[in-house]
Amino acid sequence: MRPRVERKIVDLSNIEQQVADDNSKPSNSDKPVLLGILAVVFVILVGGYLFSSKSSPPASISLKPYDGPPRTTDATPTKNPDVQKVSFSIFTKTGTPPSEVVMEIHKSWSPNGAKQFLTLVQNRFFKDAKFFRVVPKFMAQFGIAADPAVQEKFRVNIPDDPIKPELHNTRGVITFAQTSAPNTRSTQLFINFGDNSFLDAQHFTPIGKVVSGMDVVDAINDEYREQPDQGKIQSEGNKYLDQEFPRLSYIVQANMVYD
User: What is the pTM of this model?
Assistant: First the structure.
């Protein structure tokens, strides 16, 4: 009988496969080496990830250069979101140091007016601005920038706000100046020295009031009354005022106050 070669071949292939499988399995002596290699790879991968995450910002963050103070105001004190305090440092007369006046701006009284005023404060518009029109027992007017270029940048009219019958132009109340035409408020304001309630019906809508330092407001220099020419102030700024009216009181700086 001829030998069954086919069966022997099958048996040999099985043996070869078994040998190959056995050779592919790591021996006990190889396991520590493999574990060491895996540990090193793991440390490299984790370290690379941590380094890259610290050294570069997420793709969703856009890095922009600093561009000065914000152009709008959303900042409000934590106690009452309707009220924002502002501090004016005012130089009143030669020989006296600047003194502080604190005012509360009420957004609900005049939303457009309050927003405009706080925007001007945040952009340092009032720095070195003069009280160029001061009428005793009536009001002290300010709001033309020291630099004509700054004035031109912010010289835009804002919409009128509705009249609120419960609000009045009384002592210490702050209001935007305007003409008899609608929507002519811009950058000029005044502080009332006394009871000027007759202005209420003329659409002079209050935006806030002085809560500290009204004695400083009373000390604002009134010797020049209404002599300064507003057109020249607009075009020449403090250069004109310093030459012609050197003793005018002025705002050293204006800042937001947070409780």
Answer: 0.71
